[in-house]
Amino acid sequence: MTTARGQLHPSVQKFKQFVRHHPKMTQVVRNGEKTWQQFYEEWYLLGEQDAVWNTYKENPIETKQAAAQTNVIGEEESKKDWMGQMLTFIKNMNVDQMQQHLANVTSVIGSVQQVVQSFKGGTNVPQQEQPQQPVQNNPFFFQKD
Q1: Which candidate, 58, 67, 68, places its Cα nearest to that of 23?
Q2: Which of 23, 52, 72, 119 has the fewest beta carbons under 10 Å from its own?
Q3: What is the pTM of this model?
Q4: Residue 43, number of CB atoms within 10 A of its CB
């Protein structure tokens, strides 16, 4: 626990640990009812064992309910986040490049199937036939594009 000026005073570190065990103190400060300085002074004068601090402890039942609600909200946010990522991916996708990759994958699958068929034996693997170009004896033969 360091600051820009260096190490925190040991009593401040102990107070931070105390606040972690009494989370309702944070809500009181955020609501503007008290300041951290006021809490620190009370903590320093009264000590950690005083009955005043029991009101700032979190009830176990409230903790479980809050955790369950946080989990439900977290799941919904993660679903929304996942959908957002998918939409961003689809928007940034290059369709021509994707088609090229799919064509490559298809040719690889076909090659693997041919290799598997050749190892199975018994059947003759048809080779991909390339279109035969007519043989012309005329040296000035031109095909149209």
Answers
A1: 58
A2: 119
A3: 0.39
A4: 20
